[in-house]
Design brief:
The N and C termini lie far apart (39 Å). Strand 3 (50-52) and strand 4 form a beta hairpin. Helices cover 37% and strands 7% of the residues. The protein is mostly helical. The relative contact order is 0.16. The strands form 2 sheets. It has a 3-stranded antiparallel β-sheet. Strands 2-5 form a two-stranded antiparallel sheet. It contains 6 helices and 5 strands, in the order E-H-H-E-E-E-E-H-H-H-H.
């Protein structure tokens, strides 16, 4: 049996070195791309849903909130707040984990694959900094930060290349049209 560990467990030890973080991020991106090509969006990507095998292979798990694309335009710790799932297909229902939600998801608006791109940015930021991009004392505080606050870029290590910083800024755009 191959023992896997959640990415969250790896990050709990501290920031992930840039080269390792980028290798993990590339595999996460490939998994999301494969899902998106099949018309599926994850909607709850977070470090607890990314498993790493001893040989460094990455698996994206828990597609429990995954949803097929309809129309393209259409807990113990607060960072792992419970996911609301009742009425999952109803407009205006918030689904996902607060600290990794896109602004449109936090507002209960329609989502598409760009929601996963935002969550991918939040996961990559967390790998590189060892801290979640959006924080708060309550789930409401975290949701407010997702909607209103900008990421604190000063937490990124100086060794993070400019192109990776640029990628993060694009992934973390509040305006879905710019993401």
């Amino acid at each position: 049996m191959i023992m896997q560990r959640p990415l969250a467990q790896r990050i709990a030890r501290g920031p992930v070195p840039v080269a390792e973080a980028l290798a993990i991020a590339a595999q996460i991106a490939e998994a999301l791309e494969a899902a998106h090509e099949k018309g599926i969006m994850h909607r709850d990507l977070k470090t607890a849903n990314v498993m790493i095998t001893p040989d460094g292979n990455v698996k994206v798990l828990d597609f429990g909130l995954a949803k097929a694309f309809e129309v393209e335009a259409s807990s113990a710790h607060l960072s792992n707040s419970p996911t609301l799932s009742m009425g999952a297909t109803n407009a205006g229902v918030i689904l996902g984990t607060a600290a990794y939600m896109s602004p449109e998801q936090a507002k209960g608006m329609p989502v598409d694959r760009r929601t996963d791109i935002f969550a991918f940015g939040a996961v990559l930021y967390e790998m590189l900094t060892g801290r979640q991009v959006f924080q708060g004392d309550t789930v409401g505080d975290i949701l407010a930060a997702v909607i209103r606050a900008e990421p604190d870029w000063k937490w990124l290590p100086g060794s993070v290349p400019f192109r990776v910083r640029e990628l993060l800024r694009l992934c973390m755009q509040k305006d879905v049209k710019k993401r």
